[in-house]
Every structure is written in C-alpha cells, then in structure tokens.
Amino acid sequence: MVQSLVRERPPIRVSRGEQTRDRIMDVAEASVLAKGFAATSIDEILFEAGITKSGFFYHFRDKNDLALALLGRFRDRDLSVFEEMFRRAEELSDDPLHAYLVGLKLLAETMADIQTRRPGCLVATFVYQDQQFDARVRAILIEITETWRAQFIGRIEAIAAVHPPRVEVDLEALADMLLTVIDGAIVVAKALGRPGMLEDQILAYRAYVRTVFLGA
User: Fold this and answer.
1) Averaged confidence pLDDT in the chain
2) pLDDT interval class at 80 (50, 70, 90)
3) SS3 149
4) CA 106, CA 114: separation in Å to the nearest integer?
5) Whole-angstrom Cα distance, residue 129 to residue 70?
6) How many CA atoms lie within 13 A of 157 on its CB side?
7) pTM score, two decimals?
8) Least confident interval from 114-123, 127-136, 141-150, 166-175
9) So what's the pLDDT on residue 208?
10) Domain 13-60 in this protein, CATH class
C-alpha cells in the first residue's frame, strides 16, 4: 500500500567509490543502532565492510565526519520519503484532516516495516550521545528535528482552520506529540523487544487527533 502511494523513482547509477561509501555507512548505521556510536569502532566497520583503513579514510576524515554523513543521508533519504507520504495523502483528499489521518496510517505502516528491518532511531541515538560530536553534527540534529516539527505544525494548523478543535488543545503541542510518540515508542519498544509498539502508538495518536477535531 505504501509503495503504491509513494512515487517510484528511476534507478540511479552509482560509481564503485559511491558503492563503497554507502557500504561503509550501511555497516556503521547498523552498528550504531545496535549498540551506539561510542561503542562502534572503525576497526569493526572495516572488518564488516571488507575494506582497508586507507579505504575508510579516503571517504571519511574521522568518526565525526562519518556521523555527519550518516545524519545527512538520513535527512535526504528518510525524511523525504516520509514527507512524500503526507504529500501523496494530501493529493488524495482536499480535506486536511482526512489527508493527515491517511498520512499517519501510511507512516505507521512504514515505521513498522523500518523497525523490523533496522530497529532504533539514528537521530535519537545521536542526540543521546551528542558529547561525542562537534557543533556540525549537533546543528544537523537540530535541523532535522525542526524540519519535522515545522511540517507537522503546519498540517495541524491547516486542520484547525477547517475543523476547529472540539477540546482545548495547544496546536504546537499536538504536533510535537507525534515526534515524542515516535521517539518514545522506539525506545520503549527496543527495551521490551516489541517492535510492533511503534505502529500501535502512531495509530493511537491518529485516533486522538481524530477525537480532537471530530469529537468522540
């Protein structure tokens, strides 16, 4: 269902150097999500990626540079996919509330699939260990969070303009709730070994949004 609503993109040819860089980042991301950035060593990445130390340093100056690249890829790849889901939902309905509810349903399905394949949240992991990084990494963490926040605040405000809330609610707090639901559910789901919790929590938020604007 999600695939049918997200526009297909033509395959992009990449060079061997780009393939190697992507492989390094894939290995590093899997390790960071599994045990954190501090516990992920360059030697481990070299072994898992099957490259030499000189090959690693050809692409990345140090671990901080690798962290910057991982977050940049997350911003360009994952955030754009999620935003595309909501844009496609908006094309299916002129009603901002209905479109938002459809987008949340797609988000829940997609996040459930992502958590099955690579449990954890790269941004959350980096935020919890921000003492490991320089100002450039912290800046991109803020940029990613503010981008998500602005997107959801804009949608909530558009809904409220058409469907005045049935209960007293702070619209920015309602938008922020989605971010906290996602990151909070990821942490709790990982602690309990229940990846399905993330999908359930997004759907619970979806039900609450419906109640706020349509009533019980």
Assistant:
1) 86
2) confident
3) helix
4) 12
5) 14
6) 8
7) 0.80
8) 114-123
9) 97
10) mainly alpha
